[in-house]
Amino acid sequence: MSLTFGPDRRTHVFECDCCHAPVERAWNFVHADGAPYAVYFANCYHHRDRDHDAWIDVILGTWGAGSDQWDDHVTFACRVGPVAGQDTPASTLVQAGLAQPDAPVFGRKLDREAALRHPRLPEFWQVSDFVLEHDPLVRRHVYGA
Ligand SMILES: [Zn+2]
After folding, report:
1. What is the pLDDT of residue 27?
2. Where are the domains of the chain?
3. Angle (nearest 5°) at CA 112 between 107 and 113
4. What residues pack around ion ligand 1 (CB closer than 5 A)?
5. Which of 45, 107, 131, 135 has its CA 20 to 30 A from that of 38?
6. Predicted confidence (pLDDT) per residue in 90-136, tens digit
7. Among candidate residues 32, 40, 36, the one with its CA nearest the CA of residue 80
8. Dist. CA 77 → ligand 1 center (Å)
């Protein structure tokens, strides 16, 4: 499966709930073998007094062809950031959809336990790794310039 970005990447800056620092968000489709496959929302936090991390939601499901049915959509999320005792940032599964708009497109928002048991978990890691490596905002935020 070959992953690529869709043509309509967007970004947005808003204020952090906890410290009013700017939060940078990027979102886009990820295509697999040329067809829409997933949507991600990545929030990059610049907290004043906590770790600078990124929270990535990935929605998997059926897309396109006039389909506005979201009953097979499922959302996973991870936090990527510094972890004590480790040199490189780590990804940890978290409750999905915490910092995202509440919309039916998200389908079922998985918590950590449900995500661990879900058969599509490996696909989520594949998409989130792709976003980490290739979305310019997320990559810069997590790995530095
Ligand atoms: Zn904050």
Report:
1. 96
2. 3-143
3. 100
4. 16, 18-19, 47
5. 45
6. 999 999 998 777 788 899 999 999 999 999 999 999 999 999 999 99
7. 40
8. 18
